Amino acid sequence: MSQRVYLDHNATTPMRPQAIAAMEEALRAVGNASSVHGFGRAMRARVDSAREAVAALTGARAAAVVFTSGGTEANNAAIRAARRRRVIVSAIEHDSVRLVADQAETTPVTASGVVDLAALERTLASSSEPALVCVMLANNETGVVQPVADVVRLARAAKALVLCDAVQAAGKIDIDFAALGVDYLTLSAHKLGGPQGVGAIVLRDGAPFEPLLRGGGQERGRRAGTENVAGLAGFGVAATRASLELAQMASLAGLRDDMERTLARLAPGMRVFGAAAPRLANTSCLAMPGVAATTQLMALDLAGIAVSTGSACSSGTVRPSHVLAAMGVDADLAGCALRVSLGWTTTDGNIARFVGAWNDIYRRLSPAARLASAAA
Ligand code: PLP
């Protein structure tokens, strides 16, 4: 088989070589970043420079950045910080947001996958209890970019706090923490070319915060535990590379749009979800009606091509995508949806391979294609 094709960058993207080099260098060094001797100070310098880089990626002050073990911990920490509040989550949030708060209220999205601002305003007005509103910057399944500044405007009017999960957006679109105006912004290194198991929460000055982990005074008492210095070094370098390559990421839209046009020509019933809204340039969520996503996924895997389904697999069962359900997509059609996500290593040749393999599956397995060929 020719080289494997990786089109699952929203699950995790390959590490950037510069990040691997920075991690190797840090792994060879000794010292605890809390020690006052020279070894410790050299470790501290690595942590500080990672903090500067992650702050620069989001336009935040370095002191606002608290490192965590990833996006999941960062989201959990924000929800814990506001735990005496009523929690309102958009219907398309990642599980690390929507399944964390007890009794979270859900606010809907439109058919194009954008949070419904009028509905959010009504939800906020339905109680005078102080709230935390959770709306992500870009959705992991559809890539749809959310109107977070408008969400903040509504939230402020209701004296609510805002958590914005920017895990998928960071490194794909420009982020200006101050302009967004959110209280908590969360990030994950492995979505932008850094290592897995490393992330951050960016805090607005004065936003309430309670550490999830208590113990030593690391992260200014906001997250105890000896720092994962090598991981942070990789995160910092990946964040810098990602900031420098935002234009290249944006240019993936050309490749993605050509791919979607070609597939629509080959299979007129093909559906793209979220295409009517602003989307991340790298993400396409598309359905081949009549062919189960798991069948497509396995056939593509056999052809050496990695994508993911719009459904999440847990304990051996495939759950339908809560994102597509929230957009009002019929369950049968949602069960035929794949997520194709491009990234910094994607080439024209990768997309051509995917289109060829997808068309092959379509012609072999799609009821519509088989009917058309029988009629011909
Ligand atoms: N938030 C979003 C939108 C994600 O896509 C993910 C990962 O898939 C997470 C949070 C969790 O991040 P991590 O894998 O670093 O825990």
Key traits:
alpha/beta; binds pyridoxal-5'-phosphate; globular; 376 residues; seven-stranded mixed sheet
Give an overview of the whole structure.
The structure is a single chain. The chain has 376 residues and is α/β, with parallel strands linked by helices. The protein has 14 helices and 15 strands. The chain has helices spanning 17-28, 38-58, 71-81, 95-98, 117-125, 148-157, 177-180, 229-244, 246-266, 293-302, 322-326, 331-334, 348-365, 367-375, and strands at residues 5-6, 65-68, 86-90, 105-107, 131-134, 161-165, 184-188, 199-203, 271-272, 283-287, 305-306, 308-309, 312-314, 317-319, 337-341. The strands form four sheets. A seven-stranded mixed β-sheet has the order 2-8-7-6-5-3-4, sandwiched between helices. A four-stranded antiparallel β-sheet has the order 9-10-15-12, covered by helices on one side. Strands 1-11 form a two-stranded parallel sheet. The longest helix is centred in the first third of the chain and has 21 residues, at 38-58. The chain starts with a strand and ends with a helix. Pyridoxal-5'-phosphate binds at residues 70-72, 75, 94, 96, 136, 140, 165, 167-168, 188, 199.
